[in-house]
Amino acid sequence: MPNNTYTAKDITVLEGLEPVRKRPGMYIGSTDEKGLHHLLIEIFDNSLDEAIAGCAKNIFVQMHENGMVSVSDDGRGIPTDIHSSGVSALELAMTKLHAGGKFSSQAYQASGGLHGVGASAVNALSSFMQVVIKRDNKFFTQSYKIGKPDFPVKEITREQAAKIIPEYHKSFLDNTAGTFTIFKPDAVIFKKSTAFDFIYIKKLIRERAYLVAGVFMHLFDEKTGKHTNFFFESGLRSLLAHTNRLKKPLHEQIHMQGTATENAYPIGVEVVMQYTDAFSETVESYANTINTHDGGTHLTGFRTALTKVIKDYITKNNLAETKAGKKTESGLTPDDLKEGLSAIVWIKMTSSEIQFESQTKTKLNNPEVQSAVYQVVKPALETYFEEHPATAKTIIGKVLLAARARQAARAARDAIVRKGALEGMTLPGKLADCQSKDPSQSELFIVEGDSAGGSAKQGRDRAHQAILPLGGKILNTERARLDKIVEFEELKDLIIALGIGIGETINPDKLRYHRIVIMTDADVDGAHISTLLLTFFFRHLRPAIDGGYIYMAMPPLYKIAHGKVEKYVYTDEDKEDYLTSLDSATRAKVGIQRYKGLGEMNPEQLWETTMNPATRILKQVIVEDAARADEVFSILMGEEVAPRKKFIQTHSKLANLDV
Predict the structure, then answer these.
(1) Could you identify which of 322, 341, 377, 539 might form a hypothetical disulfide with 305, taking C-beta atoms 3.0 to 4.6 angstroms apart as the criterion?
(2) Can you tell me the mean pLDDT for 547-572?
């Protein structure tokens, strides 16, 4: 029976930083590697805010051998004087939620921090933290354990500060002012790992270095000795050039910048864009120093302005497509404008006014930002088109070509299958569908070859598992438009089986399977087929990846048999470890079978090792860095041979197709 008593004693009040430790995901998004690195970025962004305010020129980051990480800057330094609450402002900022200089527009015009939550949240989730402040040529410090001060903020001598500050940060001692922070993530919270990743941190710092031009950013890994520095004078222009370095630009960069006043406060807008010969879109958006991976109102404002200007230019200059000798409406869709577009949209606004969809800040929500971006981009782009008619016509040509390809794809789609077939009304004959009609309970295995397909069909759980065998390598869709894709038999069958549609008809809600498993042989051909399929999903069915529906099957590499014992292992390392665990007499009688293809397994073996939910291993395909993923697909699947050769040579020692 439910407990119907509910009184005041049932109300829990979490004091100080307890809410952060109780629900860390609310403050840093997660407690995995991503959440771990979020701690560092919160501290780093506090230093970056000083740079944006024009008060810092250098930011140092050090990864320590003991698992700690430290950040220093030559900014103004966190205030240490006594606050009206009776404690030092430093202690307040480090130990109290919603206490900081970012609520008011006086201290920071634009910042990416958590509005008084960032530093204190990091402190709460760290087993140890210490801060050293330099202001007015005086040094102050305070240390903490799980967010609780070890002692009140105190002034220390330069010699005492030198014992705290690591060698890499020694320039801090000679700065006029600044902030040094060192902390160690709490293993109680970050159970999976407390180890920071150099490559991941390097990417985050580089990204910010592009945004805030003219600031030196330094990174050092004490354990490996790796060291890197960033400094960019051109800001967004440099970032776009880096993004497009593997593509062929169709024109020079278009740079637009201005300020619009909304709700009585200014919003700075900066956009740089360029069309390339690519078929996909690469657009990044930022709010202050935050990469808004899921876009938001600033991106909507840019797209609205771009669509308006292009459509108006087509009408004004009589550039609409002709049909039967008559001008027709351009009929442009947002997708037509996306093909080959590379752009970066950055807004800067008062930190106290900025609104994100969630605490992890992946989508900007301020409605007034959409208007601000539109007000800046529309007139600037109109002026550019008028002053550069050749570039304008190049862009219009690219857009109209994309529109024609879309219309051709629609015609091809209608010619290939009867109306509605791509939405799943007529399933392909080679698909062995499952009995369940509930997408959340249904799995589709995309299997290489008819032999493996036959074993998979016999060994599967018919209630929930569907099998679609591929006849061989599919079309490379990196540089293929929709009309070619829907004409390709294997891809047409896959699109129909998924039911999600493609191009302008794509609808994630119609996806028939919420677990789509790519199951190929553990050899070079299998890896190539997997890459072709991933390219198709990334370029043309991206919602399937973003929804977390794509997986890679992990069939075993070896069957080790001795006596009546059969052991399946998935890597060479597992094989050696298992053989080492056997006594010498047993080891001499061991039989080892290497599975080069799925077709070598009988249905029972394939089920038990690769398809049985209780025993199988699946790897989920996720996109943590869309720009990097875009770059890798362009390198591996694009037309240029030289970048691909260099990539393969650079990463050949890291490649392990068996895992």
Answers:
(1) 377
(2) 90
pLDDT (tens digit, 9 = 90+) per residue, 596-619? 778 788 899 899 889 999 989 899
CATH number of 236-413: 3.30.230.10
From 270, 261, 198, select the one nearest 240 (Cα to Cα): 270
Statement: residue 458 has pLDDT above 60 = yes
Q: Name the catalytic one among 18, 321, 525, 600.
A: 525
Please check the confidence at residue 11 and state whether its pLDDT lies above 60: no
Predicted confidence at residue 349, as pLDDT, reads 85
- The CA-to-CA distance between both ends of the chain, in Å, stands at 50
Q: What are phi and psi for residue 562, nearest 5 degrees?
A: -150, 120
What residues pair up with 265 in beta bridges, in sequence order? 262
**In sequence order, which residues have a C-beta less than 8 Å from that of residue 274 and are 6 or more positions away?**
240, 244, 249, 250, 251, 252, 253, 254, 342, 343
pLDDT of residue 551: 96
User: Length of the chain in residues, anyone?
Assistant: 659
Please tell me whether residue 118 adopts helix, strand or coil conformation: helix
Question: 3-state SS of 527-586?
Answer: HHHHHHHHHHHHHHCHHHHHCCCEEEECCCCEEEEECCEEEEECCHHHHHHHHHHCCHHH
Same fold, 236-413 and 418-555+620-626: no
- pLDDT tier for residue 345 given thresholds of 50, 70 and 90: very high
Concatenated DSSP letters of 620-658 = E---S-HHHHHHHHHHHHSS-HHHHHHHHHHHGGG--TT
Helix (H, G, I), strand (E, B) or coil at 211: helix
pLDDT band at 49 (very low <50, low <70, confident <90, very high): confident
| Token duo for residue 262 | 């909304």
pLDDT value for 352: 66
Determine the longest span between alpha carbons in the chain, in angstroms.
Answer: 87
DSSP string, 4-66: ----GGG-----TTHHHHHSTHHHHS-SSHHHHHHHHHHHHHHHHHHHHTT--SEEEEEE-TT
Identify the pLDDT of residue 330: 52
Residue 13 has pLDDT above 50, yes or no: no
Catalytic residue among 521, 574, 630, 631: 521
Task: Look up the CATH number of domain 18-230.
Answer: 3.30.565.10
Q: What pTM, to 2 d.p., does this model score?
A: 0.65
Residue with tokens 């069915």: 541
Which residue shows structure tokens 């240390």? 143
Catalytic member of 487, 523, 546, 608: 523
Does residue 220 sit in helix, strand or coil?
strand
Give the mean model confidence (pLDDT) for residues 156-161.
Answer: 96
Catalytic residue chosen out of the listed positions 45, 448, 478, 490? 448
**pLDDT value at residue 336:** 86
β-strands 565-569, 550-553 pairing: unpaired
What was the pLDDT predicted at 476?
Answer: 87
- Residue 73 bears catalytic tag: no
The confidence score (pLDDT) of residue 324 equals 45
Task: Select the CATH number that applies to the domain covering 418-555+620-626 from these four: 3.40.309.10, 3.40.50.300, 3.40.50.670, 3.40.50.970.
Answer: 3.40.50.670
Annotation says 525 is catalytic:
yes
Q: What are the domain boundaries of the chain?
A: 18-230, 236-413, 418-555+620-626
CA neighbours closer than 13 Å in the CB half-sphere of residue 4 = 1
Residue-level pLDDT at 16 = 62
Q: How many CB atoms lie within 10 A of CB 300?
A: 18
3-state helix, strand, coil in the chain (%, to 5): 40, 20, 35
Is residue 521 flagged as an active site residue? Answer: yes
